[in-house]
């Protein structure tokens, strides 16, 4: 593959990550407006919110099977427009069943999109021979900041959901469709695409499990910040309503900054050291949040959280690609499911502990889970798995 083809492929994939960051932020930051528009009760809202990651997890599993027959770039080329159209559906409906349908389609499409994007990122990183995965996730963070800003503007100007969503979709949908012409994967002549069954057999769950746990722990931490930072700063630390909107934005900005320089850290110090450092920094952030005497100390804790957590997820995908180079698509699809497991577990866990015990104490749970990443850090430097000739059998099956 030519250097130019790799560069174009990297740029087009970064655009897809950015577009997804915008789209997802537009959805999650307007959840109160969605609830008001459709008259969804407080009791029913968690069902709607849980359905999206559940369906996304299902779609990620299905994507594992699909990419045995078509390349991840084909899946991404179709999934991303569906996500954007589903977002418009969320804003355009008038009945509860309509928003339920739109969110269902969104969840299914976003699972396929997340899996295929990260498959391609892992493949391109392999071709580059150096860490570039954090850069893709930095583009996602940048998109998240842009999407959240658009959502703020829509709320500030009292725009309808459709009016808030439409400009982003009108700009980004043609852009990603055009950019998809340059999607590329970093496969070399030595890479053999085995049949789906052979690839699945070459990814034993016991070897992938440490990375799955790390992915879940990271997203438990991330969902804690996403769902509870505003309430925590206002209700527990005594911050103003206006100040309570700041921690998530600070978290996103520090996530962007950490990911923007993270690849340089991986190249200089190695993935294991970067993941260990990020885990410790995130745990310190949760600790500061838990004992903070006031709102500004809480802000410091959320800042440390963003800088620490941001490196873990991209490096988990990259580690799966290194561990299973002959079946990285399967490994990434399975690992991606634990993204949604962490998202589903994190927010209810913190809420339940906060109500039953205290929200300060609840912050110690994600702190301990993030620290547990240290137990599995060696998996981030693992050599390609060797286990009973799985790759050799896959190659033989392909040749045969």
Automatic annotation (TrEMBL):
The name on file for this protein is Major facilitator superfamily MFS_1
Bilayer topology:
Multi-pass membrane protein
What PANTHER family does the entry give? BYPASS OF STOP CODON PROTEIN 6 (PTHR23514), INNER MEMBRANE PROTEIN YBJJ (PTHR23514:SF13)
Query: Any keyword Transmembrane?
Result: yes
Sorted keywords for this record are:
Membrane, Transmembrane, Transmembrane helix
Q: Which organism is it from?
A: Streptomyces pratensis (strain ATCC 33331 / IAF-45CD)
Chief location of this protein within or outside the cell: membrane
Q: Which domain of life is it from?
A: Bacteria
GO cellular component terms, alphabetically, are: plasma membrane
């Amino acid at each position: 593959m030519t250097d130019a083809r790799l560069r174009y492929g990297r740029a087009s994939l970064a655009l897809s990550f950015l577009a997804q960051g915008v789209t997802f932020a537009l959805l999650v930051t307007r959840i109160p407006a969605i609830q008001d528009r459709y008259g969804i009760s407080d009791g029913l809202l968690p069902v709607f919110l849980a359905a999206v990651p559940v369906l996304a997890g299902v779609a990620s599993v299905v994507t594992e099977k699909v990419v045995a027959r078509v390349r991840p770039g084909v899946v991404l080329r179709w999934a991303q427009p569906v996500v954007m159209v589903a977002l418009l559906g969320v804003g355009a409906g008038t009945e509860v069943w309509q928003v339920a349908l739109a969110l269902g389609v969104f969840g299914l499409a976003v699972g396929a999109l997340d899996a295929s994007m990260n498959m391609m990122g892992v493949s391109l990183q392999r071709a580059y021979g150096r860490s570039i995965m954090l850069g893709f996730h930095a583009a996602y963070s940048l998109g998240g900041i842009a999407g959240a800003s658009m959502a703020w503007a829509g709320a500030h100007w009292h725009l309808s959901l459709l009016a808030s969503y439409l400009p982003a979709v009108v700009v980004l949908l043609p852009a990603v469709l055009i950019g998809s012409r340059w999607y590329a994967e970093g496969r070399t002549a030595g890479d053999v695409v085995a049949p789906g069954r052979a690839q699945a057999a070459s990814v034993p769950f016991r070897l992938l499990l440490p990375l799955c746990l790390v992915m879940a722990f990271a997203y438990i931490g991330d969902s804690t910040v996403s769902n509870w930072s505003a309430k925590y700063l206002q209700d527990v630390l005594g911050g103003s309503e206006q100040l309570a909107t700041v921690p998530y934005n600070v978290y996103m900005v520090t996530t962007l900054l950490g990911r923007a320089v993270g690849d340089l850290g991986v190249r200089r110090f190695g993935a294991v050291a970067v993941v260990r450092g990020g885990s410790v920094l995130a745990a310190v952030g949760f600790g500061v949040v838990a004992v903070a005497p006031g709102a500004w100390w809480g802000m410091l804790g959320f800042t440390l959280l963003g800088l620490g957590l941001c490196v873990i997820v991209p490096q988990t995908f990259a580690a799966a690609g290194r561990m299973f180079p002959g079946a990285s698509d399967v490994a990434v699809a399975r690992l991606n499911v634990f993204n949604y497991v962490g998202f589903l577990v994190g927010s209810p866990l913190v809420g339940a502990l906060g109500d039953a015990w205290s929200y300060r104490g609840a912050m110690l749970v994600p702190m301990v889970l993030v620290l547990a990443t240290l137990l599995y850090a060696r998996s981030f430097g693992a050599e390609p798995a060797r286990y009973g000739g799985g790759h050799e059998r896959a190659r033989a099956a392909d040749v045969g």
